[in-house]
Amino acid sequence: MEAKKIGCYICTGCGIGEALNVAALEKVASKEQKIPVTKSHPFLCGTEGIALIRQDMANEGVNALLIAACSHRNKTDEFEFNIPLLDRVDLRDKVLWVLEDGSKDSTAKEDLQMMAADYLRMGSVKLKKMNAPDPFLESGFSKDVLVVGGGVAGLTAAKEVADTGYRAILVEKSDQLGGMVARMHKTTPTLPPYRTLEDNPVQGLIAAVEGHSRIKIYKGAAIHKTQGAPGLFDVTIHAGGTETTERVGSIVLTTGYNLYDPAKLDKKLGYGSSPDVVTSLEFEEMAKAGKIVRKSDGKPAKRVAFSLCAGQRDSNHLEYCSAACCSYSLKHALYLMEQYADASAYILFQELRTPGQMEEFYRRVQEEGGVIIKGDVEKVEKAAAGGLTVQIHDKLVRGKEQLEVDLLVLATGMVSSVDTTDPNNPSPVGQVAEDAARYVLNLQYRQGRSMPELKWGFPDSHFICFPYETRRTGIYAAGPARRPMGIAETITDATGAALKAIQVVESVARGAAVHPRSGDLSYPSFRAEGCTQCKRCTEECPFGAINEDEKGNPLFNPTRCRRCGTCMGACPQKIISFANYSVDMIGSMLKEVEVPAEDEEKPRILLFACVNDAIPALDMVGQNRSKLSPYIRIIPLRCMGSMNLVWVADAMSSGFDGVLLMGCRHGDDYQCHNVRGSSLAETRLSKVSETLDRLQLESDRVKMVEVNIMDADTLPQLINDFAAQIASLAPNPYKEF
Amino acid sequence: MADDQAAGQTILVVGGGISGLTAAVEAAEVGYKVLLVEKDPHLGGRVAQHYQYFPKLCSPSCGLEINYQRVKNNPLIRVMTLAEVEDIQGTEGNYTVRIRQNPRFVTEKCTGCGDCSRACTVTVPNPFNFGMNEIKAIRASHAMAYPGHYFMDAAYARSAEAQTLVSVCPVGAIDPNMSATTLEEKVGSIVWATGWQPYDAEKIQPYGFGRFANVSTNMRFERLANTYGPTGGTLTRPSDGKEIKNIAFIQCAGSRDHNHLPFCSRVCCLASMKQATYVRSQFPDAKVTIYYIDLRAMDRYEGFQKKVEADPSITWIKSKPARIDEDPVTKDPIVVGENTLTGVRYADPYDMVVLATGMEPNSATTARVPAQAVAYDEYGFVVKGGQVLSTGCTATPLDVAAAVQAGTAVALKAIQSAARRG
Amino acid sequence: MAYDLSFARDVYKNSEMGHWIKMCKQCGVCAGSCPLGPHWEFSPRQLFQMVRAGKKEEVLKSHSMWMCTSCYNCIVRCPRGLPITHIVHGLARYASVKGYADPDQVTNRFATRIFWTNIVSTGRVGEAMLTMRLYFVDGIAAGIKQGLEMKDSALGMLKAKRLNPIPLRGKIKGYAGFQAMLTKAQELEEKRESGV
After folding, report:
1. The domain C5-97 belongs to what CATH superfamily?
2. Contacts of B129 (CB under 8 A, 6+ apart)
């Protein structure tokens, strides 16, 4: 590999040239930091400025760029040179705009210059410590996609994968494809005018999947083991008495749902008290079979009550809403009214939920005579003449009413069939008895065999912005396995999951990360000889990327890695680093800051800021021209999870007076793109007082705050208050050393 | 396609809101070229105007920022802002589209320094804040706008002052003489993701929006709560600047209504619950009343409804109010109707009433698809069966999570479609 | 009380616009829209749900559907497009036909005893006579009192030519034809109601 030759380019536009002594800055770069090529330009992002850089790259052999101009979030197209070694020093947004107030005050000018010079030093050392990442590439990568579960979601995912030109392997536990929807009669409308029931799409899907040359199907199959990582998953499938291992690139989890056990429902709903109290699925099957009859005596069931939310939206049962049951129940009422001209269909609802164009289907069912009643079932008794007497509380006519019906249909909810575990309490592999049937994938992951759950047994994470994120790279859940949903939405969802499954195998093939650091070619390496088997990295990785050998040494799976650096932050031995991001790099950067002597009364405060939220917020502080303390020095971190405590110790021993950490919101509604980064940082920090005690320093010199990207209005006060608080303490005694 | 990626057919995505942005980024990250066309000067669409997302009460800018990073980092995505697709010819796998590039009057040289905006003396009603405040006629749309370079209003560009700004710009980025251009592009597939506009609340005559100062809408309220909104995020009412401590939200203002939008707009119930939390967190002594027909907090969002329901200062009234009157002295809006669960008629005054207006698909009005064969439903949503793929709120009213799902799914359909040569 | 659709089905079939009752989604906008809303025992929405619940006696004996003044606010605002004014009048008529209507209910009394006799006798509405009979329906003293109270309105209406002062102008041209039409209409209505 050719030697690194750094070129430092200082933009003097946007007022930088007027406010700063650029010649002195150039000297910092060239003389102090020994950067071989250092130049300034009045409009660096303009055609001439870019040409200047390109010329040096072509003629001077510059192959690493330090661009000192505006925030790295600006002018990204202009400053794109297709080289891995590039760093941006922000002299404008986070220096000039937050300090310069037009005053001729010499102290202010000096502070401004000192800050700019420090950032240039930090950028220089960062670039010196940075190496071009060598992407992880292997010959054994597979681009095949495993689809687990052969219902509508799985059939769709397999078909979409195959239609895009990739091979799909479909595993279904039963002997037949089609899943839950195969048991249904018809489906609710998806096409205008949204009034008519549609034919069940399952048979068509099964035919398409079974006839597809790129789809391999295992029926009556169970997955005994899933080993490996994206591109390199080895999945052991048992089917028909034989064991097969398939190498796949990614996995789509479409195991669907189980209905909430009706036996657990409140007794007042009457399930089990009479055969004429049935679940909606039982009613569906009856309609599919042809005749809607009383189960007790086989007589035509013309009077039917449909009770929605049976055990749903209920803290004693399922706390969530199953989304599709309102529409399904309306559909059931329509089956009834289509079968019997003199039918009585009563729809007992809490909140009738027919979103979007389904509102028209709701109208259709009323038009046919379906009666809606907002009310609860209070008691179910067998009627003397057969059928049931259902006592309800009718909230709209405000009283107790009776329904004489032949059937009571309970709309029970959806329970994800994916095995999940509390991510904070995973059961590690090796501590759980072998029981393959309990697991859908039986992941051979150090953090557990099951999928991490967010809530209510659903294996998801960032369900708003990144709905397919499961915290297990390369494994995407879709359909009701992931979240309760109806058939049309399931088909969309499975198509989206198919895309993600394809995207990950293509990214792996390029050695690139997937979301949130899409395209990142770097990945951590482990200096094995330094490991003390403390297991922090294997426990803390938010994505379960690191397994362990029997001695507790980390076994890293690069293609599971999202490059957040949480392992690097966790490691007390500093053995984990990226080519372009390391404990040493950040440590060296902070040590490069010139700390004024105690008697100068210029404290220094180190500010670690997450690039996802805090850095953009700080940019906006600059845009607003809000003023910040001149004593702060900001180091962006790719995620707070990568924060290694040694930096805090380094900062203190280097003479910084305070350290402020700005991470994303954590807790139940976490915003951290890497799920646990900022939360782990806070946990680590709780131990920092020991370090400070050892150094005989006050523990409130170090503080962590949650910063939202839109906090530019409150950030200045937060930062300046902290600076004032630090200024009120005695200077850090380690400045002298 | 796996075997056939060299074909490199470009996917055209029309609309840079969350659905289009998702479709573009997801397809590009598989390895396909994408042309993303947006009519506004910035990406982000409706989502960018929101203060927080339900149910996590986090800023949409956070999710948008990472998507913008993905766009910036991906050379396969080409973004055109202030651009509109005027014509589509050809067939699947082989379309020719004509795109109108409206003038920005500021070139890409712009560094976002803001000197021009400070020099500009002309203000206009701020469209990003629904005209609730004034903003300079040359500007970035908002603090998080991407692309970040400035633009000038077309009317202002014709003024004499606009010419004087040319010399104000230190990098020579301003050109008030810029005119619209038209270009043709070859694309393999087309995703229509032009999104929605809030239903025009003035059409709901009995609710008095436009006549009564303190009757607002949900989208306006998002801006009112926003730090970058017209009041800097302080919830005060227009008539007298009084703090909004007694507020009502009226659901289905225009939705589920054959006089207006017959369909359900899906998100409004949750949006009102979310907005109730804005008020409650800003003023601990505030009272909130939500008038509704059915509370539609689907699937896991039910948990959010439960959380909001746990707040005793929020009252829920199952009723579609009949009308709003205005107290001539206090300018309090008075909501009149019948509580359907008690049968009691009410006429209750509030500091402000927010109408939860629904989503009208732009494809029904301003963003019709200029192609030969397009399938619409009676509401103007683009449905299956035509030449273009539709996604997000162009196909059906969706919340953000569902729009991201749909945007991801359509990316795959677009990849498949681009590979099919007609 | 048990839900029973037989009453609802009869209303759907035999009450004017009665089939629309199926379509109500119980939003309540009609109740709030009605200027006489507070005087109704049951709002239109409630009446409709009661019809669907089979509460025949309560619905038909109710005075509520006689309260409608045909302002059409409810029709304009109903999100489901129910012709509520017509449905409510239909229910009143249905109650009347089924023998449930209270003859002393004020609207019923006005309609059957005052308005109907007035219009049938001549073929046109004699406005002065109609007003007089309305005022004097509760006795002479009450009639004089109300007449005096309303005299300014009456004079104003006279000036604006909104009230014809001549009490009797005789029968309309073709009165016999008018009567024949009424007879035929009644015949048809009876036939429809008897379900033949």
Report:
1. Alpha-helical ferredoxin (1.10.1060.10)
2. B135, B223, B229, B230
Q: How many CA atoms lie within 13 A of A619 on its CB side?
A: 23
Alpha carbons A143 and A161: distance in angstroms, whole number: 11
Residue extents of the structural domains in chain C: 5-97, 106-193
The neighbours of chain B, by the rule of 3 or more Cβ pairs under 8 Å, are A, C
- A402 vs C: CB within 8 A: yes
| Interface residue of C23, C24, C25, C27 to substitute, partner B, most B CBs within 10 Å | C27
Task: Please give the Cα distance from B75 to B78 (Å, whole number).
Answer: 7
Q: Residue B353: which CATH number?
A: 3.50.50.60
Q: Is C73 on the interface with B (CB under 8 A)?
A: yes
pLDDT at position C167, please?
63
Task: Work out the minimum CA distance from C100 to partner chain A, whole angstroms.
Answer: 21
Q: What are the structure tokens assigned to B55, written together?
A: 């149910």
Task: Respond yes or no on whether the N-terminal peptide bond of residue A516 is cis (omega within 30° of 0).
Answer: yes
The predicted pLDDT at position B2 comes to: 43
Q: Per residue in B382-401, is it b (16+ CB within 10 Å) or e — as a string?
A: bbeebbbbbbbbbbbbbbbb
Half-sphere exposure (CA, 13 Å, Cβ side) for A283?
28
Report residue A427's pLDDT band, with 50, 70 and 90 as the boundaries.
low
Name the residue in chain C with its Cα closest to that of A349. C25
Chain C residues within 8 A (CB-CB) of chain A?
1-5, 8, 12, 22-26, 46, 49-50, 52-53, 55, 80
Of A362, A366, A403, the CB nearest to C3: A403
Where do the DSSP E strands lie in A162-211? 168-171, 186-187, 198-199
Min Cα distance B332 → chain A (Å) is 30
Min Cα distance B68 → chain C (Å) is: 41
CA distance B76 to B344: 61
Tens digits of residue pLDDT in B372-410: 899 999 999 999 999 999 999 999 999 999 999 999 999
Q: Are A466 and A126 in contact (CB under 8 A)?
A: no
Q: Which domain holds residue B157?
A: 115-168
For chain B, how many structural domains are there in total? 3
A730 CB contacts (<8 Å, ≥6 apart)? none
User: What would the mean pLDDT of A150-176 be, rounded to a whole number?
Assistant: 98
Q: Does A328 touch chain B (CB under 8 A)?
A: no
The CA-based angle C139-C144-C149, given to 5 degrees, is: 130
Contacts of B77 (CB under 8 A, 6+ apart): B24, B25, B28, B33, B34, B36, B71
Chain C residues touching B254 at Cβ < 8 A: none
Q: Is a pLDDT exceeding 60 seen at residue A146?
A: yes
The 10s digit of each residue's pLDDT in A38-83 is 999 999 999 999 999 999 999 999 999 999 999 999 999 999 999 9
Any idea of the CA torsion for B238, B241, B244, B249, to the nearest 10 degrees?
0
- The stretch A202-214 carries a mean pLDDT of 97
Q: What is the 3-state secondary structure (H, E, C) of B279-308?
A: HHHHCCCCEEEEEECCCCCCHHHHHHHHHH
Strand partners, B73: none
Residue of B nearest to A494 (CA): B409
Q: B319 vs C37: CB contact, 8 Å cut-off?
A: no
Per residue in A312-330, pLDDT (tens digit) is 999 999 999 999 999 999 9
The number of CA neighbours under 13 Å toward the Cβ of B295 is 22
Contact in structure between A515 and A476 (CB atoms under 8 Å): no
The complex scores an ipTM of: 0.97
In chain A the domains, ranked by start, together with CATH numbers, are 1-132 (3.40.50), 145-256+417-510 (3.50.50.60), 260-413 (3.50.50.60), 525-577 (3.30.70.20), 582-737 (3.40.50)
Closest CA to A10 of A91, A97, A131, A101: A91
